[in-house]
Amino acid sequence: MKLIILGPPGSGKGTISELLEKEFGWFHLSAGAVLREEVEKGTSLGKEIKKCIEKGKLVPNQLVTEIVKIELGDKKSFILDGFPRTVQQAENIQDLPVDKIILLDLAEKIVVKRLSGRRKCPKGHGYHLVYLPPKKKGICNVDGLPLSRRADDNPDVVKERFKIYKKQTAPVAEYYKKKKKLIIVDSAGTPEEVYGRVKRVLKN
Ligand code: AMP
């Protein structure tokens, strides 16, 4: 399966992708996670990327496209999470064969609530204080590392990220809708509920 998952910040793209990867073994490529890894390396490229992420702005199209293409290689199955985020990025990968494009649809007020409770371990395993709590408070179930909140999940940056989503990423959904490729899935509810909906549309 070659899959693209679109949706506003906090719509569950990462959570749903992780569940799909775990169940089906499809390669999960989170554009945000790859960019954060580059920031961690502290390279000059990483420093440029950091400036964008901290402000909630998008990293330049060409740069993200190149990074994503390198990471994807010639994988037989993949889940693209958080890419494309602009029409230009969608056009950059128009030759890439994709089976399904899913939009996880979620209202802004739920986004803010979800992101404020979101936690991650340093290796990227995701949790939520209310919807997906770890077994032991503040500790990752998988590797026992401490959980923390992403710097760009603070309310001011979240507002900016949602603004950018509406302006730059919502048109990507329109782009695929016009091509009759878009499947819209309601992303309200628990991860299990949303995952169930996603699996149903993947079967069709
Ligand atoms: P995410 O982990 O998907 O929420 O992404 C975190 C941040 O990484 C975003 O707010 C952007 O600054 C950057 N980012 C992730 N994906 C992209 C993309 N496709 N294009 C440009 N910037 C991106």
Task: Please tell me about this protein's structure.
With 204 residues, the protein is an alpha/beta fold. It has a single domain (2-192), classed as 3-Layer(aba) Sandwich (Rossmann fold). Helices cover 49% and strands 15% of the residues. The chain has helices spanning 13-24, 31-41, 44-55, 61-72, 87-92, 108-116, 155-178, 191-203, and strands spanning 2-6, 27-30, 78-81, 100-105, 118-120, 126-128, 182-186. The chain has a 5-stranded parallel sheet, with helices on both faces. The chain starts with a strand and ends with a helix. Bound molecules: adenosine monophosphate.
Report how far apart the termini are.
13 Å
Gyration radius over CA: 16 Å
CATH class identity: Alpha Beta
Strand order of the largest sheet: 2-3-1-4-7
Sum this structure up briefly:
The protein is α/β, with parallel strands linked by helices.
What topology emerges from the helices and strands here?
Layout: E1 2-6, H1 13-24, E2 27-30, H2 31-41, H3 44-55, H4 61-72, E3 78-81, H5 87-92, E4 100-105, H6 108-116, E5 118-120, E6 126-128, H7 155-178, E7 182-186, H8 191-203
Parallel strand pairs: 1-3, 1-4, 2-3, 4-7
Antiparallel strand pairs: 5-6
Residues 9, 31-32, 35, 52-53, 56-59, 64, 82-83, 85, 89, 152, 161 line the site of adenosine monophosphate.
